[in-house]
Amino acid sequence: MEEARSETAPKSFAYRLRRDAGGLFGRLRPLWQRRLFRWVAILLGGALLAIALFWLIFARGLPDATSLLEYEPPLPTIVRDINGQPVHSYARERRVQLQYSDYPPLLIRAYLAAEDKTFFEHHGVDIPGFAGAVFDYASKLGSGQRARGGSTITQQVAKNLLIGDEYSPTRKVKEMILAWRMENVLSKQQILELYLNQIFLGRNAYGVQAASRAYFDKDVADLQLHEMAYLAILPKGPANYRPESEKGHERALDRRNWALGEMEKNGWITAAQRAAAQAQPLGTVQAHGSSFDARAGGYYMEEVRRRLIQLFGEKAEDGPNSVYAGGLWVRSPYDPTLQDHVATSLRNGLLRFDAGRGWSGPVGHVNVDNGWEKELAASYIDVDYAEWRVAVIISRTSTDAQIGFADGSTGTLPAGAAQTPYRKTGGPAFSAMKPGDLIVVARNGSSWALRNIPEVSGGMIAEEVHTGRIRAMQGGFDSRLSSYNRATQALRQPGSTIKPFVYAAALDNGMTPASIIVDGPLCVYQGAGLGQKCFRNFSGGSAGPQTMRWGVEQSRNLMTVRAASQTGMDRVVRTIKNMGIGDYQPYLSFALGAGETTVERMVNAYAALANQGRQFPPKVMDYVQDRRGKVIWPERWKPCDNCNMANWDGKPMPRFGMEGKQVMNPMTAYQVVHITEGVIQRGTATVLADLNRPLFGKTGTTNGPTNVWFVGGSPDIVAGVYIGYDQPRSLGGWAQGGRIAAPIWKAAMTPLLETMPKTPFVAPAGIRMVAIDRRSGKRVYGAWPGTDPKPAVIWEAFKPESEPRRSIRKEEAEEQAKVAAARADRAVANGRRRNDADFLEGQGGIY
Questions:
Q1: CA dist., res. 612 & res. 761, Å (int)
Q2: Sequence-ordered alpha helix ranges (H) in 186-330
Q3: Cα(454)–Cα(350) distance, rounded to whole angstroms?
Q4: What's the Cα-to-Cα distance from 296 to each of 86, 305, 340, 681, rounded to whole Å?
Q5: Peptide bond into 634 cis (omega under 30)
Q6: Measuring CA to CA, which residue among 210, 302, 311, 292 is closest to residue 631?
Q7: Which of 530, 571, 715, 797 could link 674 by a cystine bridge, Cβ 3.0 to 4.6 Å?
Q8: Pairing verdict, β 77-80 and 329-331
Q9: Confidence at 236, pLDDT banded by 50, 70, 90
Q10: Average pLDDT value for the chain
C-alpha cells in the first residue's frame, strides 16, 4: 500500500498543476482570441515595462526632495572688529541669505515674468513650455547650438541644488521628476526663497541680494523697477548681459525692456511704470570685489582665517561650520585704528633701515606672452602703501619701459626714474629689468618712478594685558607680497628681551633687585665635547660688582649669565617654559636669548608680567557664532544676561570667576616690571622716556646682529616688534634694539597711549617699597626719591623680609654720586677714553 501511494502521489500532483493551469488558460483562451483583449493586455504589459524601465533609467537613485527642507546655502564667514563693525569676509561665493518676506513683491514678479509666469499655477512642470523646449531641442539636434531650457523655477532649483547642470535630455527628465516631488514637499514660497538665495547672477554673486550689491551697490529693498528687471534677466546667462562690454550692454537693455513688457502683460505693472522704467539707463556700478575692504587687516585676518580652519575646517565637506560655507560670524579684538598705526610704523621703519641699500629686485614675474593682464591678475601680488602700485614690465627700450597695471591701464617708466643701483649687480635697476618682471612704482608727474620693497622684514603685535586679546598684528611689509606672518610664524632669537625672565628665576630663588652681581669675565667648562665657553658684554668690557637693577637697565650679558649660573639653568629654562616662550635645554647661552621664539609668544609673556604673573592665551577671536547666532566657540562660553542693563534692577550683580593661568609669583612679576621701568627711564630704551608715562620694557639685539627687538608697554597694553632678514644675516654693527626697534614701537603706540590715562603699575599685596641707594643697593634712611631720571635714591620693590638690612645716610649717598660724576668728567677732560666704569657713572645705554 505504501509503495502504491508513493508511485501515484507525484502523478496526482503534476496532474493537478496541469489541470489548474489548463483551467485558468482555458478560461482566458476565449478572451485572448478576442482582438480587443489582446491589445489591451499588450498595452498594459508594455506600460508596466515602460514604467519599470523609466524608473530604472531616470528615477532610481535620485536625491530625496525632503532634504531641501533642511538645505542651507553656502554662506561666507564675516569678521567683526573690536567695535562690532563687519570688516572682512572669507568667501568663494558672494551670497547673503534672505527670507522670502525680505524680497520686495515687485522683485519677485520681475523674476516670474522673466523665468516662469505660471509658477503659482503649475505643479513643478510647465507642460506647454516643456513641449516647446522639446521641439526646439529636436530642431537644433546636430547643429551644436544649445536649445532653450523651458525649465520652471522649481526645475531650476532641482538642477542647481540636487542634480547638477549636465546638458542632456536625461537630466531634463530627472529635473521634472524632482520638480514634481519638490512641489509635494515644499510650498511655493519656500521654493522661491531657495531660488532667489541660490541662483548665480554673475560678478561672483550668488543670490539676488548679493547681485543687488554687486551691480547696484544697494540692498534689494532699495532697488528701483528698472534695476529689478535687469537682475531678473541674469539667470539666463550673466555673461551675455555684462554691462562692461558694448554688446553686453545693448543686449541687457533689450532683454530688460522685454522683461518689463512681460510684467505689464501679466498686469503686475502699469503701462506708465513700464515706459518710465524702460527710459532709464542700466545704472549699474563698476564691477568691484567684496563690499569689504580686502586690504583691511592683512596679516591679522589671515591669522584669523588660519585658526578658524583649524577649528572648523575649510570647505562644506569639513562640517556645517566651515569657513567658506558655514556662514560664521566672528567677533574679534581687531582694532582698525591701532592696526593702521602698527602697520604704518613697521613699514616706515623697514623703509628707513633699507634706505640707501639699492633696489632689491622684482617682486615677482609673469609670462607676458600669455596676456599680461590675465597673468598679472592671477598673480594676486599687490601692495597697499601710500600711492604705490604693482606693475608688470610689458616691454623695455634703452630710454623707457612700457608698464601695465591690474586694471588694464598702462604707463611709462623712464630710465631716469629707475637709476637706483641694483644691489645684486651694482648697476642701474633699469638695466636689470626685463619683460614680465613685477615691480613697484609710484606716480611721478605724467609717468612713473621705481620704488623698492625692503628686503629686511619684521613683525609686530599689540596685546591687551588683562585679556590676552590681540588688538593689532603686522607680519611683514604687505601680506599680498608675502603671506608669511613674521609675528606668529617666524622663529627668531629674542636676544636680551629674554633677560627679564632670567632675572625672574633669580628673584624666585633668593636674589633681590638690589643684589650685587659681578659684571666681570666668566668662562664655563661645558664638557669634553664643547670645551670652554667664555661670555662677553656687548662692549667687550666689564664694570665690576653692580646691582641687579643696573644689570637689567644696561643689559649686561656677564651679569645675566652669572645670575643664571647662580640660580641654576634648570630653574631658568623652567621659568621661560612656564611663560610660554619656548622649551629650551639648560645651557647658559639660552639666558642671553639664543633660543628661538615668536613675537606673539614674547608679547604674551610680557603681558603676563604686567598682569602680575597671570597669563591669558593670545586671542585673535573673542567668540564665533554660527549662521543662526549660536555661540559655538569657545566651547564653554556662557552669555552674561543683563550685563548691559541701563539701570541696576536691584538683583545680585553678575560674578565672574578668575580667568587666566597664574604662571609666575605676582610679587616676582611686579619686581621685574619695576626693574624694567628703569630701562625706559635711564637704560637702553630712553628713546621712550619722553612719553612721560609709566612704561616698562626691554630691548634686544642678537649676535651678528641679526635681530633687533623691543617688547614692553603700559599696565593695560603690551606690544613687541623685531626687525631682521628672513634668512638671518647681519644687520650691521650699528644695529641695536634701542636704535631701530624701540622707535618703531614708539611711533606705533604713541597715538593709542595718548588716549589712555597715565595709570601706574600697581604692586600686589606683600610687596615692600624701600628707599635704596641706586648705585650700591643699600637701604637709605632720611631721604626720598626724586623725580630726576637718574636719582641717587630710588624706590625698590622687595618681597617680605628680603629688603637690605644695611643702610647709608642720605648725605653719604649724595656724596658718592657727586664723586662718581666728578671722576667721569675728569676722565673726559684729560682725553682718556671712557670705559665701562665711566658708562656706569653716566648711566648711558650700550645694549
A1: 10
A2: 188-198, 208-216, 225-233, 246-265, 271-278, 299-312
A3: 6
A4: 11, 13, 9, 36
A5: yes
A6: 311
A7: 797
A8: parallel
A9: confident
A10: 86
Q: In this structure, what C-alpha cell is assigned to residue 600? A: 606673539
Q: Is the pLDDT of residue 237 over 50?
A: yes
Q: Give the separation between CA 787 and CA 770, rounded to whole angstroms.
A: 16
Residue 160's pLDDT band (cuts 50, 70, 90): confident
Which residues, including other chains, have CB under 8 Å from residue 656's CB and lie 6 or more apart?
Answer: none
* CA gap 763, 672 in Å, rounded: 11
Q: With contact defined as beta carbons under 8 Å apart, do 500 and 664 qualify? A: no
Query: Which residues of 656-809 form beta strands (DSSP E)?
Result: 661-662, 696-701, 708-713, 717-724, 768-773, 779-781, 793-798, 807-809
Instruction: Find the helix or strand (DSSP H, E) in which 52 lies.
Output: helix 35-54
How many CA atoms does the CB half-sphere of 74 hold within 13 Å?
A: 21
Residue 402: pLDDT over 70? yes
Given 115, 183, 600, 796, the catalytic residue: 115
> What span, in angstroms and rounded, lies between the C-alpha atoms of 758 and 364?
47
597 with 491: CB under 8 angstroms?
yes
* pLDDT attached to residue 841: 40
What contacts 488, CB < 8 A, 6 or more positions away? Answer: 303, 459, 461, 473, 475, 598, 599, 600
Give the whole-number percent of the chain exceeding pLDDT 90: 64
Q: What is the DSSP string of 156-212?
A: HHHIIIII----SHHHHHHHHHHHHHHHHHS-HHHHHHHHHHH-B-STTBBSHHHHH
Q: What is the 3-state secondary structure (H, E, C) of 671-682?
A: HHHHHHHHHHHH
Where are the alpha helices (H) located in 588-691, listed in sequence order? 599-610, 666-682
| Other C-beta atoms lying within 10 Å of the C-beta of residue 794 | 22
- Cα(39)–Cα(261) distance, rounded to whole angstroms? 51
The set of cell numbers assigned to 307 is: 585658526
How long is the chain?
847
| Confidence label for 19 from pLDDT (cuts 50, 70 and 90) | low
Q: Is 212 marked active-site? A: no
**How far, in Å, are 119, 133, 278 from residue 147 at the CA level?**
21, 7, 28
Please check whether residue 328 is in contact with residue 312, taking contact to mean a CB–CB distance below 8 angstroms: yes
496 is catalytic: yes
pTM for this prediction: 0.82
Q: Are strands 717-724 and 696-701 parallel, antiparallel or unpaired?
A: unpaired
Q: What is the pLDDT of residues 312-343, one digit of tens each?
A: 999 989 999 999 999 999 999 999 999 999 99
Q: What does the block give as the cell for 521? A: 669675565
Options 212, 322, 496, 542, the catalytic residue: 496
